[in-house]
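[READ THE FOLD]
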Amino acid sequence: MREFLRDLSFCFAAGCFAGLGYALALWAMGHYGFSRFLHVDIAPYLSSTYVYQRVVWGGICGLIFMLPWQKSWLTRGFLLSLIPAGILLLILLPMRGLGIGALALGTLTPLVIILACAAGGIAGSGLLRAQGK
């Protein structure tokens, strides 16, 4: 039981780190014009509220890292990041009235969301690897 709780807390912390990576990646893509180049209307303002929400939700999504995974940490980070990206694109953003895939923000919005989630997932998976998990 003790080992399970330790793993659970490691995965939550890695998820928080992944959420920070996601928030910074999405902000950077908007700030440096990558999303504008793709004609996607995503350019969040970097604030404590913006970062805090993504860190907390990242921690919750970090529980995905509890799944057994024997492949490389890079592959684990990318493939497991597709789960939160799918939730964003198919459930959360459509609930905000942006349509399936949030295509109201631009045709390549799914690409921007998947890249930001991948940056976070790889960051979280790398943190777990550094911890020996």
